[in-house]
Structure formats: C-alpha cells, structure tokens
Amino acid sequence: MSTNSESLVSNGGFDRKVIMILIGLAAMVAIIMAPTPAGLSMAGQRILAIMVFTIFMWITEAIPYNVSAISLIFMSIAGLGFAPASGTSGALLGTGKAIPLAMSGFSNSGWVFVASGLFMAAAIVSTGIERRIAYMIIRMVGTKINAIMAGIIITSFVLTFLIPSVIARGATLVPISLGLITAFGLPINSQIGKAMLLLAGILPSVTGNAVLTGAAPNPIVLSFLKTAGLPGISYIEWMEYLFPFTVVFAIGLYFLVIKMFKFEFSELPGGREYLNKCLDDLGPMSVSEKKILIIMVLTILLWATDKLHHIDATAVSVLSVLLMVSPYSGVCNWKDLSKKVDWNTILLFGAGISMADMFTNTGAAKWVAKVLFIDSGVGNLSITWLAISIFLLMFIIRFCFTSITSCIAAVTPAIIGFLVELHNPALPITGIIMGVLIVAQSTAILPVTSAPAMIAYGTGGFTTKDMVKLGIPLAVIMYVLILVFMFTYWPLIGLWR
Q: What is the tens place of the pLDDT at every residue in 205-230?
C-alpha cells in the first residue's frame, strides 16, 4: 500500500492532482465566503463559485470528467438548497427544490439529442457500413495522392450525415487511413502518412459544423439560444447557415495540405487492388447494413423536413434509436448497444447543460456579462469588432479545454448573456454564436484539444509540431473565411446584419 502511494508521489501525478483539487476548492470557498456583490443573488454567487471549481477541474483534469459531473450536481444541490430562494436573504430554497434545478440538463432536448446521437453512432458502427462507404468513396475518387486526400474529406462529410458523433467518425477515418498507409508500404510518419492522419484527426470536428446532428456541441448551443429566448434553428436552416462555410473551409484545408506536404509520389501503387480487396473482405451488404441504411435515410429525411411535419429533430433521433433496437427493424439489442456507448459523456453533457441553466436562471450569467463586458466598455464596440473580439477570446479559451463540449458549455452562456444584455436589436446574436461554435470546433493546433486528433496522434504518425505547422495557417484561413462570410453570404440569408 505504501509502495503504491510512494510511486504515485514520485511520478508527480498524485501530488499535482491533489494540489489542483485543493486550489479549486479554495477558489470556490473564497467566492462563496466573499460579500455578495450588488446585482448578484446569493444563489447566483454560489453557482458561480461551483462553476469556477468545475471549469478548473476540466482544464487541469485533476479529477475525471464523470466525477466532476457528479460533484457539480451534488454541490449545486447543496449550494442552491442552502441559499435564499431569491436575493440575498429570506427563506432557504431547500434541497428538495434544488434537485430539479441541478438535474435540469437531463430533461433538456439538447441532452436527449446528444444521448440519442451516441446510441445511433454505436448502432451504425456495429454494422460496419461506415467502412464500406469510406472504401467505396476513396475507390471512386481514384488512387492519386491528391485524389485520396480529397476522398478522405468527402468521406468525412458523408459520415457526418450518417454518424452523429465526432469521436466515432474519427475512430472510423483513422483506421482506414492507417490501412491505406500500411498496404502501400509507407512509413507511418511519411509525408503522405502525416497528411492522411492529420486530415483524419482534424476533419471530424470541422465537418461537424455543417449539420445540426454533426457534433454534440451543436444541439447544446441550440438549447442555450432557446433558453435565452432566441429563435430556434431547424435542420435545414443550420445547413443553410454553416454547410457552405464548412465546404469552403474544407477546400482551404485540402489545398493547404497538398501545398505543405511534399508527397513521396503522386499515385499509390496497387491502390485500387487494395481497396477492392477491402470491399471483397467485407462481402456483400448484410441485412443489418441494409436496415441501418434505410433507418438513416428515413431519419435524415425527417430531420430535413421538420418544417413540414413539425416533429422536433430530437424526437426523430429517439425514434431512430427505437427502430435500431426494436425486433425485426433493429440491428442490435439494447443490452449490447448500451455496452458500446460512453455513458461518461452522456453524464458530462447533462451536468454541463444543468450548469449552464443554473448559471442563467440564477442571474449569474447576466451579472458576469455586465461586469466583464458591459462595464468594461466592450459592448460599445461596433458589431464587427465586437464579433471579432469574441471570436479571438474563444480562440484563446479553447486551448484551456481538452473537450470542445466542456468549452462550449462553460463559455457560451456567458457570451449569450452579454449579447442579450446589450439590448441591441441590430446585433446578430445567433450569427455571433454560430461563429463562436465554428472557432471552437475548427481550431486544430494541438492534438490534446480534440478527441479525434488524439486518436490520430496516438498512432505516432505525426508530432505536435506537425499539427502546429498545419493548424496555425488553418486558423488564419478560418478567420479570413469568417470575415468574408460576415460581409457576403451570411447577411444574404439573414444570419448577419
């Protein structure tokens, strides 16, 4: 027992984590014990303190995400339960009434959407149809190196419609890329290998911007906008807003990759034969693949026509999961499917949305927005410079989080609260938040800030330096395109003014 403890201490892991936890707790207690500022309720002050602790845990990873989610829920129940129901004095709210507030994220449509998406992704991957589609697309574009790079991009876009999970898409693209590299006798860290694996690690998050169901943060952001009283966004409207941007950005990524990397040769020898063998090994399309394809086509059609039948996209996702696990129409049973889903992620999403709801409903978001942005004069900037400042802020904050979803959950409510508090009808709040989402999901400079990038990085095919060399000019392209769309396309479709 003592040997294990000494080992932990000698490695520095135990000491560092304990110190980080103690610092987080000290900061939380200091905020709770401080005099309540004017304009902030005691409940809001306590939620702000709990948020500081939780976000610090997310940044430092001193405790696992699932543990931080549970601690957030417990501390919120205690913090709200022993705070006045309103203001800074009066009868306490009570823990019984605090529980629904602390658990509000688990009844949020955004959480249901994300949970359903994770189950859908697990069911789809269990059939293997995603590999068949990927091999067919790459074989179709040809085996010239430039064409294969384009094929990886096209595959990522197609999988974005079929697999509503960034991690699952990364787990699909990386092995396929590895298989191609190995089959052609290339070193994994060759110029071609680096380029393919970097694309496989970056693209899942980038293409996730294009479709409402493409990434977990998308429905979360939508739920935040609705909570703030802003109009909802349909599946088609989301595509209208962000799909063109994502396509242009992906084209920029393609040209950047083929210019930056000096490929060893222009065409992969025996490439078509290898792809044919992969498809032959898969055999004819199975019954499960056919079923999942029919279910996903139906799901996408219902998502795309929500303005006709008025069935919410979240309800459609639940229906899709039901069809995937039901007798006769299903491709797997619930027992097997539940083992393939990351329940920690589902827990984290629910807790994160609860945190954002409490941050807003206690008035803490409004107070923070006033102190940090309005009183500082940032709100007096022109719309263009205000948007640029917010995008740059998100770019900097993004490096503090290893989880895009945690970053969005922590930062977006405060930004929305600030923008709403400006009471400026000319302000394109939804447009600015869409820009914030693009920055959060498209910034690809360090592997550790993205799960798909970490999957690709784990192969050893590229170094952090390789990703930085690609990621910095890619970030410049992203900001240039955001500015171009702010003044051209987005005003035409009503997303910007």
A: 999 999 998 988 998 899 889 888 89
